[in-house]
Amino acid sequence: MTTFDVHVIIENKPGISDPEGETILHDLVLKGNHSAVSKIKTAKMLKFTIKEKDKKSAKITVQKICDELRIYNPMVSKVTIDVFDA
Amino acid sequence: MTTFDVHVIIENKPGISDPEGETILHDLVLKGNHSAVSKIKTAKMLKFTIKEKDKKSAKITVQKICDELRIYNPMVSKVTIDVFDA
Amino acid sequence: MKVGVVVFPGSNCDRDMYHVLTDVFKFNAEYFWHEKGLPKNIDAVILPGGFSYGDRLRSGAIAAHSPIIADVRKMAEKGIPILGVCNGFQILVEAGLLPGALLKNTSLNFMCGWTNLIVENNKTPFTNKLKLNQKIPIPIANGEGRYYVDNETLKKLKKNNQIVFRYSEIVNGSTDRIAGVCNESGNVVGMMPHPERAAESAINPIDNKPSSLIFESLLDTIGVTN
Amino acid sequence: MSLEPQELDDLTSKIGRKPTSTELQIVAAEWSEHCSYKSSKKHLKMLPMKGRLVISEKGYDSGVLDVGDGYVITAHIESHNHPSAVEPYGGAATGVGGVIRDILSAGTRPIAIFDGLRFGDIEKDLQARWLFKNAVTGIADYGNCLGIPTIGGEVEFDECYSNYALVDVAAIGFGKKKNLIKNHAKKGNIVVLLGGSTGRDGIGGSQFASDSLESENRSAVQIPDPFIEKLIIEAILEARDQHLINAMKDLGGGGLSCAVSETADALSIGIEMDVDKVHTRESDMSPEEIMVSESQERMLIVTTDEKLKKLQIICKKFRIACSVIGHVTTNNMMHVKKGKKTCANLPTDVVANAKLLDRPSKKPAYLETIEQEKKLKPVSDYSKMMLKFLASPNIASKIWVYGQYDHEVGIRTVVKPGKDASVLRLDNGKFLSAKIDGNPKHCYINPREGAIGCFEEACRNVVCTGAKPIGMLDHLQFGNPENPEIFWTFLESLKGLTDFAKYFEIPCVGGKVSLYNETPSGPIKPTPLIGILGLIEKTPISSQIISPGDSLMIIGDTKDEMGGSEYFEYIHKFIGGKCPVVNFKESKSNMNIVLELVKNELLKAAHDCSKGGLAVAISELCMTHKIGCKVSLDKVPGPKLDVDRVLFSESHSRYLLVFEKKNLKKLEDILKKDKISYSVLGKFGGENILFSKSSKPIIDLRVDKAQKTWFNSLRELVVHG
Ligand SMILES: Nc1ncnc2c1ncn2[C@@H]1O[C@H](COP(=O)(O)OP(=O)(O)O)[C@@H](O)[C@H]1O
Ligand SMILES: [Mg+2]
User: Fold this and answer.
1) Residues C169-197: what's their mean pLDDT?
2) Domain boundaries of chain C, sorted by first residue
3) What is the number of alpha carbons within 13 Å of residue D82 lying toward its C-beta?
4) For chain A, N or C: smaller number of CB within 10 Å?
């Protein structure tokens, strides 16, 4: 068994508005004259430390946890899972 | 000028507690019998879309924005910035 | 006629709800800790507001996995009246007992203040004494109260008459100004505003009647059988 | 953390040997200004602490007042200035947590929170805006999660707080008298630590609070966990109901060091404890770190072996940790061990009682000339000026703040924030009214009169709801007390408060001193803050609609007292002049008369006149009730003054009363018998707020326009810059 760091990124599905990202963009970044930035999207991240036999099964386990425990609400969000060596 | 996706991850510095991660671990994941998981840490992510001449300057600009506009408080949080091709 | 008030770690409107049920409307009410089961002789279940599990992950997301939810589900299937208020609504949604999702308010802030509801469905056990389109002055207090459903679900909600309350004006960016919904059979109702905060004249001197009717509807529904 | 050389000598001679490193840390925490009150304690004794309704018990951190029928209220005030200045979100949130645990310690349920917030100039200063925004979110997230309503407070901006923050929080508890924890302990009792785990966060916090703010020691960051705090509250109250608590103390500044030594000292016992038994967050913490850690959300409980089982069951139910860390002895020693090894063994009275100081004081030089006024540029258009004034951060409605606080949970809030004081219903049919007030602009010009003014203003606010003041909380916030000029301002304020409290027989039921509030650019202005608790025996003034034709009356004289006024400082950028002075006799009769009028149900509304003067107070009435008013300035009682002085003077003891015209005679009968200075100023109605003098209009504003500006400007400024 090896320890892995698994990053779960939860973000709104495309098409669902992200007022927080928009506020940061308009009220902070663009007011601060950083016009190179054209978009900001916010997301939530959970970093799991997990023991599994390999990267692939670490990813599968975490995906299963996310689905089973509704770590994200499938009506509004999607998740992206990345596995790293700890 | 090229467009880049810049991911900013804001999380509590090591040694500073993360009550949300602990609750998710103990009251959800471990209760759901997923004992392979030993730790969960939460973080916030901002995804910037930005036009810059290269990856390096994209990273520098975003770091500057985060510092200048106090997108995070360096007393408590650290940021990690990753740049990707859009 | 017995009403169960479910208490989760972090619930904080449980005592308010209990007070209104027992002292104001003379229900026989009892608290149920989330790890317990619900007895068979319960006539209605209320999930009160608050911050179950500190609103961590998402409001209601962790409490939706509490042991008691299995019993709530069974009762829901049996057609017993179930009301979720605020965090209770969020829990019912996270548990899949009601459709949709509750997102952060567009203001990004917690919002506490009074607003008006419009009754859209007066066939539920909690609204049968209200009139259609009746106005209810009522407080809201939430950070994640923006009700969201996709278009397809919205159509379904409309078709099945599942929209129970709407805000009279835009308050937090909810889809179609929805403030409360019910399940297809109409016995499970969830609402973001707090009827228990508006049902007494001491708190709501101008017009506590409409909010009172929410509790009187329940009295009517379950009182008759007893 | 370290002791001053003479303190080290003192400690060494008292214990007759060289202290160990753990002992040094323990004593340094406990002898810090923050925990020991070494500069202020001698003087605080002057405040009257006793009263008919005051219940005193040993070892309480909060004041207790008997409100009749077997019920009590408890109250306490705290600040979290230094932590909030570096981490506004966490600092403000944990400030709320701390004061709530003080209320809980007495065995009462917390039922209300108040917050007083002070920052630099948010119109110009982005840092101040960031601090303000995050402090508000911190308070909201903490209080809302606990389900304790934040029902009032104040917000003020002044350049003296640039790069700094004053975050004051007060809390009120309610319970049955028979449920109060009667702190007691005897040999063999056990000592339990309950709640969150002990970590490295907040190490050195109390010392930090006693240093002026410099970037190097910005190390004490505390992460709030309101969810645990909520569970602790429920667990403790359940344990209280089952009589499982012999004595209790919250952990605040100085962590275990303070809680253990102060409990032992207050109860005349000894405590032996083992740091290895403390549940920690990190495995490699030293005994010193464990003893001085200021991790939040922890309580110390003294109980018995037999009761422990039940206590553990409760803790398990609420999923909170609880560790038996030691037991009670009779030798009056605080004995700290790590396993078998002794790390500290000190007499508790030595630890708990730092040597009190008699600091020198001297009247500040600046006060010699501060009362001189300079010639001001005349205002050409008062209507325009007034609109700008209503939008200014100190005058604008604070709805952006209290709208983020759940102020209704608990369903006690009968009068909600946004008016003067807020009012809660109590279980015995009575009502509690409360408000906190400060005014550093007045206090800077005259520390004594300014402090008295804050006291009177807070009283006026509760009186406007029909409540009689029954208790006072004070929070004295100043710069470095080692500076004799600053210490003089501290003493003056304290003397003023004492005089007022004695004259009005309002006992001080609690307080706090916060010193060393300085930044590299200097000390803050003297900022005493006063909280007043008022009791309404029957009904509070009910929320009534003001209708066209209703009359407006003012009680009290408007005097030439412009120093420290918002008008001088915001409109003319001038700091100086004579600040308002309270005439005690007048103040008392005006207070009593308003209470009598409310009791006789002769009023539709009462509002006090304070920041921004008459012009702002009348506008506030119009804007909150969305109705116009025609006001004649010729009738304002007091000496003849220029029009701007009549409009904007902040003289105390003034009340605005709204009543149905037909009640005028009855009102006058009461007012005349007490020789009250009053005058009917105008009539409500129409869509404009209109002030005129000798029939000439001075200010003419549409109510809706004024209301929109006043209501939204703070949010606009904070959110959109
Ligand atoms: N920080 C705050 N938190 C909660 N309520 C606040 C805050 N600041 C102001 N308020 C509320 O706004 C109203 C006006 O406050 P303030 O201007 O301080 O009143 P006053 O001048 O009567 O003392 C009061 O009801 C007060 O409780
Ligand atoms: Mg007032």
Assistant:
1) 97
2) 2-221
3) 29
4) N
Instruction: Compute φ and ψ for C84, nearest 5 degrees.
Output: -115, 125
Q: For each of the domains in chain D, give its residue range(s) and CATH number, in order of start.
A: 541-721 (3.90.650.10)
Q: Which residue from D117, D119, D155 has its CB within 8 A of the most atoms of ligand 1, so it is best to mutate? A: D155
Q: Determine whether the shortest distance from the Cβ of D199 to ligand 1 is under 6 A.
A: no
User: Is any ligand 1 atom within 6 A of the Cβ of residue D437?
Assistant: yes
Confidence at D270, pLDDT banded by 50, 70, 90: very high
Contact status of A33 with chain D (Cβ, < 8 Å): no
Q: Chain B closest CA to A2's CA: distance in Å?
A: 11
D710 Cα to the center of ligand 1, angstroms = 14
Q: Is D16 exposed, middle or buried (0-12, 13-18, 19+ CB in 10 A)?
A: exposed
Q: Which ligand is nearest to the CA of D406?
A: 1
CA dist., res. C189 & res. C184, Å (int): 10
Contact of D636 with D682, CB cutoff 8 Å = no
Q: With contact defined as beta carbons under 8 Å apart, do D406 and D150 qualify?
A: yes
CATH fold label, A2-85: Mth169; Chain: A , (3.30.1280)
Can you spell out the DSSP letters for C103-145?
E--TT-S-EEEEEEEEE----STTTTTSPTT-EEEEEEEESS-
Q: Rounded to 5 degrees, what are φ and ψ at D280?
A: -110, 160
Residue numbers of C annotated as active site: 86, 194, 196
User: Would the pLDDT of D211 be above 60?
Assistant: no
Number of H helices, E strands in chain D: 24, 28
Tokens of D431: 């009502």
Q: Which whole number is the average pLDDT over D472-482? A: 97
| pLDDT at C225 exceeding the cut of 50 | no
Residue D605: half-sphere exposure toward Cβ, Cα within 13 Å: 24
Token pair in block for residue D317: 């139910």
pLDDT given at position D543:
72
Cβ atoms D591, D621 nearer than 8 A = no
Alpha helices in D649-702 (DSSP H): 664-673
For C30, other C-beta atoms within 10 Å of its C-beta total 15
Q: How confident is the model at residue D540 (pLDDT cuts 50, 70, 90)?
A: confident
Alpha carbon of C214: minimum distance to chain D alpha carbons (Å): 17
Q: Which residues of A touch chain C, with CB atoms under 8 Å apart?
A: 16-17, 19-20, 23, 69-71, 73, 75-76
**What pLDDT sits at residue D673?**
84
d(CA D657, CA D670): 14
DSSP-derived 3-state class of residue D362 = coil
Q: Are strands D431-438 and D422-425 parallel, antiparallel or unpaired?
A: antiparallel
Q: Which amino acid does the sequence have at C64? A: A
* CATH 3.40.50.880 for domain C2-221: yes
Confirm or reject contact between A20 and chain D (CB < 8 A): no
Q: Is D115 in the pocket of ligand 1 (CB under 6 A)?
A: yes
Closest CA to D197 of D223, D236, D220: D223
Query: What are the domain boundaries of chain A?
Result: 2-85
For residue D50, how many other CB atoms are within 10 A of its CB? Answer: 10
| pTM score of the predicted model | 0.96
Residues of B in Cβ contact (< 8 Å) with D130: 70
Kindly list the partner chains of chain D, i.e. chains with 3 or more CB atom pairs below 8 Å: A, B, C
Report the separation in Å between the CA atom of D143 and the middle of ligand 2, taken as the mean of its atom positions.
23
Give the C-alpha separation, D572 to C136, whole Å: 47
Q: Record the tokens describing residue D4, joined without a space.
A: 């001053």
